[in-house]
Amino acid sequence: MCCFCVPGWPSFYDLVKEESVTVTDDFAYGMHRVETSCSQCGSHLGHLFDDGPRPTGKRYCINSASLGFQSASASASSPPSNGDGTGAGAGPGGAVGGKTEL
């Protein structure tokens, strides 16, 4: 199933660290999409579409299981939060203002 069919998948218009995500052409299901995957382990993260908001016009539709979130007020050195206060996020990054760090 493609990510634009899955309700609740977060989307972002840009990446915080471009080197964290690899993009490749995906021709599955009889259509062309751009797949995003982890540059470290190769895991599927989601897809990249060209129908996003300004300023990039891109929409990174990313599986939330691959994300670790931290508040915008957290310091850059703080580990990502998984929402339970432990600071041990589901992934190595966070999301700030429409951008995602994976």
From TrEMBL:
<dbReference type="GO" id="GO:0005737">
    <property type="term" value="C:cytoplasm"/>
</dbReference>
<dbReference type="GO" id="GO:0033745">
    <property type="term" value="F:L-methionine-(R)-S-oxide reductase activity"/>
</dbReference>
<dbReference type="Pfam" id="PF01641">
    <property type="entry name" value="SelR"/>
</dbReference>
<dbReference type="InterPro" id="IPR011057">
    <property type="entry name" value="Mss4-like_sf"/>
</dbReference>
<keyword id="KW-0560">Oxidoreductase</keyword>
<dbReference type="GO" id="GO:0030091">
    <property type="term" value="P:protein repair"/>
</dbReference>
<dbReference type="InterPro" id="IPR002579">
    <property type="entry name" value="Met_Sox_Rdtase_MsrB_dom"/>
</dbReference>
<dbReference type="GO" id="GO:0033743">
    <property type="term" value="F:peptide-methionine (R)-S-oxide reductase activity"/>
</dbReference>
<feature type="compositionally biased region" description="Gly residues">
    <location>
        <begin position="84"/>
        <end position="102"/>
    </location>
</feature>
<feature type="region of interest" description="Disordered">
    <location>
        <begin position="71"/>
        <end position="102"/>
    </location>
</feature>
<feature type="compositionally biased region" description="Low complexity">
    <location>
        <begin position="71"/>
        <end position="83"/>
    </location>
</feature>
<dbReference type="InterPro" id="IPR028427">
    <property type="entry name" value="Met_Sox_Rdtase_MsrB"/>
</dbReference>
<protein>
    <recommendedName>
        <fullName>L-methionine (R)-S-oxide reductase</fullName>
        <ecNumber>1.8.4.14</ecNumber>
    </recommendedName>
</protein>
<comment type="similarity">
    <text>Belongs to the MsrB Met sulfoxide reductase family.</text>
</comment>
<dbReference type="GO" id="GO:0006979">
    <property type="term" value="P:response to oxidative stress"/>
</dbReference>
<feature type="domain" description="MsrB">
    <location>
        <begin position="1"/>
        <end position="72"/>
    </location>
</feature>
